[in-house]
Amino acid sequence: MSHAAIPHPIPRFGRARREQARKDGRCRRFFSGVLYLCALLFVRPAEAGAIDKLYRFLDTTTTLSADFAQIVVAKNGRRPQRSAGTMLIWRPGKFRWQIDEPYSQLLVGDGERVWMYDPDLRQATVSRMDAALGSTPAALLVGTDTLEKNFELRELEAREGLEWVEAQPRSPDGGFEKLHLGFDGEELKAMELYDNFGQTTSLLFSNPRRNQPLPDALFRFAPPAGVDVIGQ
Fold first, then answer.
1. What are the Cα distances from residue 213, in Å, to 63, 97, 131, 218, 223?
2. Residue 139's CB: how many other CB atoms inside 10 A?
3. Are 218 and 201 in contact (CB under 8 A)?
4. With CB atoms counted within 10 Å of each terminal CB, which end of the chain scores lower, N or C?
5. Close Cβ partners of 198 (under 8 Å, ≥ 6 residues apart)
6. 145: Cβ contacts below 8 Å, ≥ 6 apart
7. 159: CB partners within 8 A, 6+ apart
8. How many whole angstroms separate alpha carbon 160 and alpha carbon 133?
9. What domains can be seen in the chain, in order of their start residue?
């Protein structure tokens, strides 16, 4: 997932190595985007400025769950890749992203470690959260108030019935050119990630549920018997 310091996705078996590499690249960029989004959700900047919609969302959200549909479009615009799943966020520092289609993969952050699990391959990677996130934008997961230090924020014109906020990393090493967050009223409805390879990842969220109790067990991961564990 570009330069973001997170565990590499687990290689998936397949008939062609090039297809496998494409899958791994999509997973890498997707999960970098996940951590990037979580970074924004877990931090309250000191000043709201012109981004009141985002700040109110941060101020009033403790837990968030939603379904998502993802479309990845390459620079050449050909063969968009589609996937779907669910996300759960518990501020501060806990998250769970489950890809269900077209194949299963799980990312869990328990506040101390980040787990990535591929049930088909029966492998899991694990890293300390600070080591996994490093100095990338996702490092905001640890709870430091550095959003405005690391990102330039601005409002965009409304489109598709949504109000949009752009977050652009100040450092060229962030792995992304920019991130767009789309709001419908007080609800986060869409996210667009523009990476350094010219690829665009669009996420549409549905059935959002905010501030409802979530079982703590959902934010813990224990490798099933027989699963190979890579990492710390």
1. 7, 17, 29, 11, 25
2. 20
3. no
4. C
5. 74, 75
6. 43, 44, 45, 46
7. none
8. 33
9. 17-214 (2.50.20.10)
Q: 3-class SS at 178?
A: strand
In one-letter notation, the amino acid at residue 162 is L
Q: How far apart are CA 216 and CA 175, in angstroms?
A: 31
Residue 100 tokens read as 């269900």
Which pair of structure tokens corresponds to residue 199? 């690829």
